[in-house]
């Protein structure tokens, strides 16, 4: 089943054309990562999907319904944790459901237990490491109603070891919590490890250069692909 469809998205800021004829389909439960050089329009595309920007032309469809310019249909995880310091871990994770009026204590307790956060649910953000704050930020997005998640360079501020641990933890969580995910990252390794498919943007205005299925890629093919992607991003 098609979850999200971008149809012929174009966008300009005044005379500066940023996106050109972006067509992309995400199936239910699919994890797609967008790669592209800085300034290629990745964040603009996210803002269009989330309803913060109305595209110059084109449309955004969620399960066949036109949601172009509409807000509140996606769960979003930003680059920085953006946690509320006066709220506990538990209360920060609950925020999305509180706003929607859909608090579910049983689900919350199960999520905390499966993610290994039950013992720290009453702590405040200032007592957590950077990696733990990012985990809380992800769980807040995961606990927000709606099956479409946008991850905006979620691990970019983490050191390499913490980043690898976070990727492993994320995969374990998503094996149980089935979501449709669109992620932006500058890390080729991260895109290959986490994604079902990688979409590469290039040019100004940006277009989709290619979409690559990486679910069953061999180690030999992965080495070649990394080099190809590196050249494209340059």
From TrEMBL:
InterPro entries xrefs: AAA+_ATPase, ABC_transporter-like_ATP-bd, ABC_transporter-like_CS, ABC_transporter_ATP-bind, P-loop_NTPase
Lineage top rank: taxon: Bacteria
Positions of transmembrane segments: none
Gene Ontology molecular function terms on file: ATP binding; ATP hydrolysis activity
Pfam families given in the database record: ABC_tran
Coiled-coil stretches: none
Keyword NAD tagged: no
UniProt KW keywords: ATP-binding, Nucleotide-binding, Transport
PROSITE patterns, per the entry: ABC_TRANSPORTER_1 (PS00211), ABC_TRANSPORTER_2 (PS50893)
SMART domains per the UniProt record, alphabetical: AAA (SM00382)
Domain ABC transporter: start-end pairs: 4-228
Name assigned to this protein: ABC transporter ATP-binding protein
